Amino acid sequence: MELRQLHYFLKVAQKEHVTQAAEELHVAQSAVSRQIHQLEEELGVDLFMQKGRNLQLTAVGQLFCKRIEGILKDLDKAVGEVHEFLDPEHGEIRIGFPHSLGIHLIPSVVAAFRQRYPNVKFRFKQGMFPTLIRDVLSGEVDLAFISPFPEKHDQVDGDIVLTEELHAILPPNHPLAGEETIALEQLKDDKFVLFSKGYSLRPIVWHACLEAGFTPKIAFEGEETDTIRGLVAAGMGVSLLPEMALFQTNPLQPAHVAISHPKVTRTIGLIHRADDKLPLVAQSFRSFLLHYFGLQQNNTPSV
Q: CA 153, CA 269: separation in Å to the nearest integer?
């Protein structure tokens, strides 16, 4: 069994077509077909079956594919670690983060890190809380910023790097728009613009309202901080957003007011897979971040 055969097999499994696989691999179609045939002969099973003009994995082919994907991913990682060992300042860091951190935090920390290590490359992936956990566990990303920090999780480890207050955001003509601070219960009669279900800020706002003694009335839902901010500025309702999400990105802006009671905060953590050693360049980035946020690695809470 040759490594080339496994790469050809995976590409055909992904494309479900020998010709398309050959085009992406930049080899002749006959070469791909021959390698797949030799692999099937060596294993003594059919890995593919014909379905119309396409090829589909057989049941045993699906099992084999799942294992080979993991093996080749580990192999690629091993090769990368060797290269990083030779020159860890030229590696690549794969990092995940929620949309709300992409406005200011991610650009700031990456820019600061690249001042020290200008040749390090970054690959970014945005996602919601469950997606980021999945990407860390699958190895899609090395590290992920996540909010809220998962206090108990058997498969990920990490550190709280930041605790951030949420502020009330109000239409500019709202009666409370000029106040320095308000109690959240003062918004009990207002309609709320909330994040859609599945976004981590939604339950934080919801539970804060319940703690303040009321259930928020939902007027609209959105999926990005810019959308929430814009709808509030347009008078569609009120909402709560983290301080980090209050940076101006367009001319139409809502008013924002601190909340005196109850204090509404979110934790932001940096997580990685618990049973896996980070690549050297990712380890350097993690150490840099912990110092960037004024933390010592041995004095931070872990999952």
A: 13
Residue 197 DSSP symbol:
T
pLDDT for residue 89 is more than 80: no
pLDDT at 301 over 60: no
Question: How far apart (Å, rounded) are the C-alpha atoms in residues 239 and 192?
Answer: 5
Give the SS3 label for residue 14.
Answer: helix
Cα–Cα dist 267/278, whole Å: 23
Query: Each residue of 90-109: pLDDT tens digit?
Result: 788 999 999 888 888 899 99
Task: List, in order, residues 6 or more apart from 258 with CB less than 8 Å away.
Answer: 165, 167, 168, 180, 181, 182
Angle at 63 between CA 48 and CA 46, to 5 degrees: 25
198 has a pLDDT exceeding 90: no
User: Phi-psi category of 52—alpha, beta or left, where left has phi over 0 and alpha has psi -120 to 50?
Assistant: left
**How confident is the model at residue 53, as a pLDDT?**
83
How far is residue 212 CA from its own chain's centroid? 31
Q: Which long-range contacts (CB under 8 A, 24 or more apart) does 125-128 make?
A: 125/94, 125/95, 125/96, 125/97, 126/96, 126/97, 126/98, 126/99, 126/102, 127/96, 127/97, 127/98, 128/98, 128/198, 128/199, 128/200
Q: Which range among 125-129, 134-138, 190-194 has the greatest average pLDDT? A: 190-194
Secondary element (H or E) of residue 204: helix 201-211
- Taking the C-alpha atoms of residue 221 and residue 196, their distance in angstroms, rounded to an integer, is 5
Of the candidates 176, 195, 200, 190, the residue with the CA atom closest to the CA atom of residue 255? 176
| Res. 297: pLDDT tops 80 | no
76 burial class (0-12, 13-18, 19+ CB within 10 angstroms)? exposed
pLDDT value, residue 300: 44
Angle (deg, nearest 10), helices 29-43 and 18-25:
110
Residues 6+ away with beta carbon under 8 Å from 20: none
Burial readout 32-43 (b: 16 or more C-beta within 10 A, e: otherwise): bbebbeebbeee
